[in-house]
């Protein structure tokens, strides 16, 4: 019998006879623990142990996500300068310290205080850190090697997104817009630097057996179709082409309002092997059947079940929605999953009903 990892990869690669894949998107620890208890199974071990145990019991193929941007930007907490109000982290760059201050009351990126890119000089620091990425290759490879060994063949591993057009999460959302307008050359230089650093991180990940390279973008909550086409599509395509040139698989995540982007063909131009999450209302704006018909047949889509419905609906509603999701993509390569990470307060019975129904319906179609 093939492993969950191999089943997942065979399905994405269209191996004849490959079994349909059911893979909930990153269910929170509370959901996994609750489902194990509901099934009368042990809840010992760490989060990975528990999800592997649950996936075996419910017969699904789990995916796990490892790090990315923290390997490009290895901020280190400075305990001497950290106090009860502020956590101070530093990153050596070009003979000086780049300093990040995070308000403890808000948490990392909880408000604008936690984003280190604030002005032109910070863009130059960001580019310098990216240029030094190759110096950390051994550390990166050790990290990915340990992660791959931890999962083994019990699931696939997807690298977290470098977020090239979001400047790797080092800039606030307001400044992401203002700097594109006020500092366009520096903003582009920062994106280019992150792209090059992404190749370094991807190379380390692929060398250690990470299954999918990836990228993500905002939906139409944050970008216009024109901006998406001019900025997100070309950078994502460069990452996808780099991955494919080295024999790898590429994963694209967008869990927002994407219906017009799909209909316009923008998602086809990303070059992704897997595209998620084709989110419906209220998380997104997609009708799964309609959007799937707009995607190129060679793309494996993933996702769609509403997180709100999964959390707040009855078991019968979850079963009905899951059946409709599976039937909507009949004849297409589609990984049956959720519209994003499963909410921590999702009832165990609802989660179990979703997974079991998805498996039964997928085997039937």
CATH architecture: Alpha-Beta Barrel
**Which radius of gyration do the C-alpha atoms yield?**
21 Å
Order of helices and strands: HHHEHEEEHHEHHEHEHEHEHHEH
The secondary-structure class comes to alpha/beta
- Biggest sheet: strands, sense, closure? 5 strands, parallel
CATH topology: TIM Barrel
The poorly predicted ranges are none
Please count the beta strands (DSSP E, at least 2 residues each).
Answer: 10
Task: Figure out the total of helices.
Answer: 14
Q: What share of the residues does DSSP label as strand, in percent?
A: 5-15%
Total number of distinct structural domains: 1
User: In which order are the strands of the major sheet placed?
Assistant: 6-7-8-9-10
Q: Please estimate the helix content.
A: 40-55%
Q: Regarding CATH, which class? A: Alpha Beta
Ends: how far apart? 22 Å
Q: Shape from CA axes?
A: globular
Average pLDDT: 96
């Amino acid at each position: 019998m093939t492993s969950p990892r191999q089943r997942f990869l065979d399905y994405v690669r269209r191996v004849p006879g490959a079994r349909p894949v059911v893979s909930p998107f990153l269910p929170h620890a509370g959901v996994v623990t609750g489902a194990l208890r509901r099934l009368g199974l042990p809840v010992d071990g760490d989060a990975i142990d528990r999800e592997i145990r649950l996936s075996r019991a419910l017969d699904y193929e789990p995916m796990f996500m490892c790090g990315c941007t923290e390997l490009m930007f290895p901020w280190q907490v400075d305990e001497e300068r950290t106090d009860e109000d502020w956590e101070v982290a530093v990153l050596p760059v070009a003979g000086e310290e780049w300093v990040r201050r995070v308000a403890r009351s808000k948490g990392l990126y909880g408000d604008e205080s936690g984003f280190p890119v604030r002005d032109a000089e910070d863009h130059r620091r960001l580019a310098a850190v990216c240029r030094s990425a190759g110096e950390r290759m051994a550390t990166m490879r050790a990290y990915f090697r340990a992660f791959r060994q931890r999962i083994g063949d019990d699931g696939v591993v997807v690298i977290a997104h470098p977020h090239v057009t979001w400047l790797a999460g080092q800039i606030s959302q307001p400044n992401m817009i203002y700097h594109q307008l006020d500092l366009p050359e520096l903003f582009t230089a920062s994106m280019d630097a992150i792209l090059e650093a992404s190749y370094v991180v991807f190379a380390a990940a692929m060398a250690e057996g990470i299954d999918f390279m990836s990228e993500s973008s905002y939906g139409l909550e944050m970008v216009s179709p024109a901006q998406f086409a001019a900025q997100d599509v070309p950078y994502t395509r460069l990452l996808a082409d780099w991955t494919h040139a080295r024999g790898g698989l590429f994963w694209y995540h967008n869990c927002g309002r994407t219906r017009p982007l799909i209909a316009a063909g923008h998602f086809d131009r990303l070059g992704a092997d897997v595209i998620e999450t084709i989110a419906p209302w209220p998380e997104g704006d997609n009708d799964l059947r309609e959007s799937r018909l707009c995607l190129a047949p060679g793309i494996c889509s993933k996702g769609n079940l509403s997180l709100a419905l999964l959390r707040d609906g009855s078991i019968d509603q979850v079963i009905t929605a899951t059946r409709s999701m599976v039937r909507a993509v009949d004849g297409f390569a589609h990984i049956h999953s959720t519209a994003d990470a499963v909410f921590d307060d999702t009832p165990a019975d609802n989660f179990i009903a979703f997974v079991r129904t998805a498996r039964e319906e997928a085997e039937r179609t």
